[in-house]
Design a protein that fits this description.
This protein is α+β, with helices and mostly antiparallel strands. The protein has 2 domains: about 80 residues, Alpha-Beta Plaits (2-Layer Sandwich); about 55 residues, Alpha-Beta Plaits (2-Layer Sandwich). The protein has 4 helices and 10 strands, in the order βββαββαβββαββα.
């Protein structure tokens, strides 16, 4: 079994129009948002062929296509025309009862086809002297649900986004 890497933030993640810098395993790297792709997590475990909001307001979802190959781990990957991405995602967040969570998809700079799909859970391994109040603040601030992990490792956590979470996992890990 592979050893899990410890995620330690050397400095806060930085976000800008040019991309987001994140840290993982002591390394820092930059990712950019896809211009036409997003993921959704359904409110139920069943996948459907359409999104309620897209059926109600098809003009907000030009070129909508579900990408079955890119859909995995309980999230579905979709593509729309680039000019419609933000409006489509906002509509899903506000008016689609079948969507629990919706987020951007990322890629490494210069590789727009190498998509990095965020899922709705985040693995966290903290230093032994972590401040529990900071974890609780993070849970509250981002509306995260704590998922029980190994009881023998008190500094290992897994958290999951909820329907009240406003940021995607990439932004949360850069917080």
């Amino acid at each position: 079994m592979a050893k899990k890497k410890t995620v330690r933030k050397r400095s806060p993640g930085k976000s800008s129009a040019a991309g987001t810098t994140i840290q993982r395993g002591g390394e820092e790297f930059r990712v950019e948002k896809s211009k036409d792709s997003f993921v959704v997590k359904r409110t139920t475990s069943q996948s459907a062929t359409t999104l309620v909001a897209a059926t109600r307001s098809p003009d907000l979802f030009p070129g909508l296509k579900r990408d079955a190959k890119g859909s995995a781990k309980g999230v579905e990957l979709y593509h729309v025309k680039p000019a419609a991405l933000d409006k489509a995602m906002n509509e899903l967040r506000k008016n689609s009862p079948d969507v629990a969570w919706c987020g951007h998809v990322y890629h490494m700079p210069g590789d727009p086809n190498g998509l990095m799909t965020p899922y709705d859970d985040i693995y966290i391994e903290l230093k032994p002297d972590f401040d529990e109040s900071k974890i609780n603040k993070l849970l509250d601030e981002h509306a995260l649900e704590l998922i029980p992990e190994d009881e023998d490792s008190p500094n290992v956590f897994r958290v999951r986004l909820t329907s009240l979470s406003k940021d995607n996992p990439i932004k949360i890990t850069s917080a």
